[in-house]
Each structure stands twice: as structure tokens, then as C-alpha cells.
Amino acid sequence: MKKIIYLTLKTTFAPFATKTWLFCNTSCMIHPHTYIHPNAKLATNVKVDPFTVIHQDVEIGDGTWIGSNVTIMEGARIGKNCRIFPGAVIAAIPQDLKFQGEYSNVYIGDGTTIREFVTVNRGTSARDKTVIGSNCLIMAYCHFAHDCIVGDNCIFSNNTQVAGHVTIGDWAIVGGMCAIHQFVTIGRHSFVSGGSLVGKDVPPYIKSGRTPLSYAGVNSVGLKRRGFSVDKINHILDIYRVLYNKGLNTTQAIELLEEEFPATDERDEIVTFIRESQRGIIKRFTKNGADENITE
């Protein structure tokens, strides 16, 4: 019988605070044709299929399944109950000429599914980490470059390519074959249609589509599914009417929102997002478009 060695440790990343780890390849859940570095730390009930390689300085949480032919490299921190499908590569070094070998990590939150041939690169000295949140679904062939920060409950359809330093808020949905420019920010609860080239920031709560990528209304269907009331959705619609329908420039629209609209979490989030935008927000496809109120 193989000897079991346990190790208790603490880290600064919340999903990995104070756990008991299986320190060596002793579990019957680990296929014998898998290579796991002796210094990798796997929690109990981790299942690893054949021909997968797990490097040193890797931590994997309880109940996670790692499929065949997966490569998990140094600096990966993978949460509980994740599913990583064949061919994925997690925590490879950044594809960035400025990278000088500095220490960095990839964090994958609890309950996230990573499908076939997804690649997630480590961070650089800019942020020291790349983060994928909890309960995300990342479909096949997606790529996340260095220093990306992705929130919880996000969905990325097949072959979405995310460049470095991108920030994506909770509950965002990105359609297939999208290309997201470096340093772009995509707000919470937003929807980006498939095949889009995302070169400007996408504010929270909206749909975006067409070429060039443009405002296409409030994401009312997604918001209703997540429990937003009709009154709150219409309030968000009113805010975006000021931003996109009144013919005001961004500065004028922000001033009007702060002067005439009640202070709400949604108003403040949208105003703050636009004020902090580094690349500028997407525009409306047609200047004279109108958004109808949600009635039910």
C-alpha cells in the first residue's frame, strides 16, 4: 500500500484558504499513465485521467476532474469541483516579449468548466496573475492571455480569443469566434454577439452586436433571468437612453445622469464604468434608434 502524506497550507486566494492536500500520487482516482510532479498538491477526490501532465507548484481543489492529455503548468491554482476537458493547457507562460520569467499564477475558481483545447496563460509583472472566476463555462478552443481578470458565472462560446490585460465582469456572455482587444473592459451582465471584434469597452447590462461593435439595447432577457425587476430594468433603459439616444456627448450625458437621475447602484455602476474607461465605450449603430420599455 502506498504511503499517504497530508499537508495543511494557507494561501491568499480565497478558494484555497486552509485545506488538507494529498501531497503525492496515492489516490486510486489518479490514472497510472498520468505524470504528477511530487510537489503538486492535489486535494482528496481529485480524478485525473491518463496522459495528463501536472507540473510542480500546482494546487487542485476537492472533487475536480482533469481529463486526458491536459497540461497544468507551474503556478496553477484550480478550485473545487472544476471540470477540465482533454487538451486544455493551464498556466503556460505568457505569450508576451516583455515577460522575463517573473513568478505569477493562474487562478481558476470553484465549479468552472473548461472545455477542450482551452488555453489560459499566467500573468506578468503587470498583475502577477490571470483569474477565471467561479461557475464559468469556457467552451472549446478559447484563449485567455496574460493578466486577464474574469468574473463569476461568465460564459464564453467556442473559439473566443481574449488578449492580455482584459477585464470581464460577472455574468457576462461572449458569443463564439469573438476577438477581444487587449486592455478592453466588458461590464457585468453584458452580452457580446458572436463573431464580434471588441476594440472598445462594453458597458454593463447591455447587448452589443453588428460591425463595428455597437450598443444594441439593454440585456433585458438576461437580467430577467437573474431576478432583476421590471422597474429596475426600465431604470437601466432610461439611463442608456440618455447615453445613446439624446445626441449628447459622453461628458454631457454623465452630467445629466448625475443631476436628474436618482442615485442607484445601477446608475452609479454605469457612470463609474464610463468615467474609468481607458479605451472609450462602444457607440450606437444608428443615432435615431429607440429602446422600448419592458412591460412584463
Total number of β-strand segments? 30
Q: What's the helical proportion of residues? A: 10-25%
Shape: elongated
CATH architecture of the largest domain: 3 Solenoid
- What class, by secondary structure content? alpha/beta
Number of domains: 2
What is the CATH first-level class name of the largest domain?
A: Mainly Beta
Which sheet architecture does the biggest sheet show?
11 strands, mixed
Unreliable spans are 1-28
Provide the CATH topology of the largest domain.
UDP N-Acetylglucosamine Acyltransferase, domain 1
Q: What is the number of helices?
A: 4
Cα(first) to Cα(last) distance is: 63 Å
What does this structure look like?
This protein has two domains: 160 residues, 3 Solenoid (UDP N-Acetylglucosamine Acyltransferase, domain 1); 61 residues, Udp N-acetylglucosamine O-acyltransferase, Domain 2, CATH 1.20.1180.10. Helices cover 15% and strands 26% of the residues. It is built from four helices and 30 strands. An eleven-stranded mixed sheet has the order 5-8-11-14-17-20-23-26-28-29-30. The protein has a ten-stranded mixed sheet with strand order 1-2-4-7-10-13-16-19-22-25, with no helix packed on it. The N and C termini lie far apart (63 Å).
In short:
The chain has 296 residues and is an alpha/beta fold. The chain contains four helices and 30 strands.
